[in-house]
Amino acid sequence: MADPIKNSINDFTPLEQHLLNDYQHDMSLSATPYADMAQRLNVSEEEVLQCLQSLQDRGVISRIGPVFSPNRIGVSTLAAMAVPEQDLECVARIISAFPEVNHNYQREHDYNLWFVVTASSAEHLDIVLHEIEQHAEYPLMSLPMLDDYFIDLGFKLKTHAHK
Amino acid sequence: MNMAELNKQVLQITTEDRALIKAVQRGLPICSRPYAEIAKQLDTTEQDVISRLQLLMDKGAIKRYGVVVRHKELGYTANGMVVWDIPDDKVDEIGICIGKYSSVTLSYRRPRRLPEWSYNLFTMIHGSSREEVKQKVEEIVASCGLQDVKHTILFSTRRFKQRGASYSAEQAPAKKAAKLHLIKNTGKQKTPAN
């Protein structure tokens, strides 16, 4: 890649570096995925389990498992609102209370509140967007994804040890 | 995109698969036989869990399968949503070009909403500081030939909510409306239960 990022990856042990870098995609669907990793990395399964648990407890990894494709098992959209500063906190709470909202960020722009809404069908999504607008009392701009140009191979960490 | 088009991409998911998706969307258990553990919760067999996940993968429901790292905890504390106003006939090519950078984690085409919103390409760029994100944007501008393209960086200043997409069944609308009514009326200090 053209722009490797230097960071604190070298603070991690060699085993942690391998677990963080080598299994972000194409992890096998074997009944014993962690024993498979252990075999490949030449350590015990117990070491792999402990190491992954520790990475998860420290918040370095959020989870191990599937990342679902957008708009395949449900539909989603990115929504934006322009909310005056004094109402922002309250409106953000109202929006976050919807179970269909899974990301909600303040960003520096006239459109200062950005959130992702996910629902089981386009009809359901429409209803939720309408409800959000009604409760928030500000107009909502919906920007559904039209094309996905990103091939998700995870997030490559630059290491000395990595081959 | 209209509703019919949006629905066209959505797979028909059985009740059993919905339950499976719900069981795995927050991650596999970290134990010797994780699928056996999930099978126990769903009252099925380890092999059934594995084959149904394989089927979801084959149908394109799963984009990536493995370790999901958190950017922030790895020192990438600044994230900028960079939005670009790209001529329609160039957006595919440029979206792919930007999507190849290792600091980029999303590259989506979205509709314009004129006159308020003219940007049609959304990319997420991570860095250890705002300066680093800005520098990366400059690099991308130079190498993808975007000198004449209008763009802006929307840095996030506060995270109100962040969790993996939840695809579980919808709440009863009446109950939800009542809950929201309560939040609104009890004023600005009360924290709603999530």
Protein architecture, described:
The complex is a heterodimer of chains A (163) and B (194). With 163 residues, chain A is an alpha+beta fold. Chain A has two domains: 9-57; 75-143, 2-Layer Sandwich (Alpha-Beta Plaits), CATH 3.30.70. Chain A has five helices and six strands. Chain A has helices at 14-22, 33-41, 45-57, 85-96, 122-136; strands at residues 61-68, 75-81, 101-107, 113-119, 141-143, 147-148. A four-stranded antiparallel sheet of chain A has the order 3-4-2-5. Chain A starts with 13 loop residues before the first helix and ends in a 15-residue tail after the last strand. In chain A, 39% of the residues are buried. Mean pLDDT of chain A is 88; it is low at 1-7 and 159-163. Chain B has helices spanning 3-8, 15-24, 34-42, 46-58, 91-99, 130-143, 173-185; strands spanning 62-69, 78-85, 104-109, 121-127, 150-162. Chain B has 194 residues and is of the alpha+beta class. Chain B has seven helices and five strands, in the order H-H-H-H-E-E-H-E-E-H-E-H. The longest helix of chain B is centred in the C-terminal third of the chain and has 14 residues, at 130-143. At the A-B interface, helix 2, helix 3, strand 1, strand 2 and helix 4 of A face helix 1, helix 3, helix 4, strand 1 and helix 5 of B.
Task: Quickly give the structural class of chain A.
Answer: alpha+beta
Q: How does the overall form of chain A come out from the CA principal axes?
A: elongated
User: What pattern of helices and strands is seen along the backbone of chain A?
Assistant: HHHEEHEEHEE
Helix % of chain A is 25-40%
Mean pLDDT of chain A: 88
Number of helices of chain B: 7
Number of strands of chain A: 6
Question: What is the multimeric organization of the chains shown?
Answer: heterodimer
Order of neighbouring strands in the sheet with most strands of chain B: 3-4-2-5
Assess the beta-strand content of chain B as a share of residues: 15-25%
Which regions of chain B contain 5 or more consecutive residues with pLDDT less than 50?
Answer: 168-175, 185-194
Biggest interface and residues each: A-B, 99 and 107 residues
| Euclidean distance between termini CA atoms of chain B | 30 Å
Number of domains of chain A: 2
User: Can you identify the CATH class of the largest domain in chain A?
Assistant: Alpha Beta
